[in-house]
Predict the structure of Aldo/keto reductase.
Amino acid sequence: MKEVKIKGATIPALGLGTFQLEDNKAFEITKAALAEGYRHIDTAQIYRNEEGVGKAIQASDVAREDVFLTTKVWRESLAKKDFLPSVEQSLKKLKTDYVDLLLIHWPNTGVPVAEYMEELMKAQQKGYTKYIGVSNHPTKLLDEVLATSADIITNQVEYHPLINQDKLYTYLQQHNLTLTAYSPIAQGKVLGNPVLKSIAEKYGKNEVQVSLRWLMQQDSVMAIPRTSKTSHLKSNIDVFDFELTQEEVKQIDQLKKDNIRVVNPSFAPDWD
């Protein structure tokens, strides 16, 4: 398993996303993922499954300190009065004293960046989280984030072969930050893609595995594919026994011209 090292953190590059998994399903999938060898688990307040995830970690044979656990503060809890109480609630649901990474899930135009970053730093000072970061922040907002004294380690954003994230990725590289890819298979849209399919056939893999491998071969990139099927857990993590050639990487890089974005809610910021 590839690991990404950043500012003292060592993080398994491939993790489990739990978006859209209700509590019981999140429990089942997280427990199975840990048994399969996953050690990086991602949840969020708005997923309403922190309880299931927490129970699964407790019920597994894996020690809490061996799991890199991420949760995210929802945009409606970013104001000073709501922020820390919401994090305390998350820890309670997750049945843990701390998370490894706490993220701002989405920016909120009603709350200044400086205000929510100050609260995020407070959560870190209190020991509620080891590391901090943001999610869904384009470069313009990242400028504001970095203008505070917050020492973030990642920006979690939509990233897969069908979207163009060149500007953001370059920015993160320049500022020694990682990119955590959510929806790394474009919510299934990579399936049937002729380029990915032909490369997959060469290695006895599928389009999902080729997409994840493409991400794993990039510097400072992590990915958190979500699945609701335990049978997919093994294949999603089974991407470290082959390597894409430079030519194949170039072919996959060409797919970003479609610039397909699968997650774009009404409250999304202006993307780069």
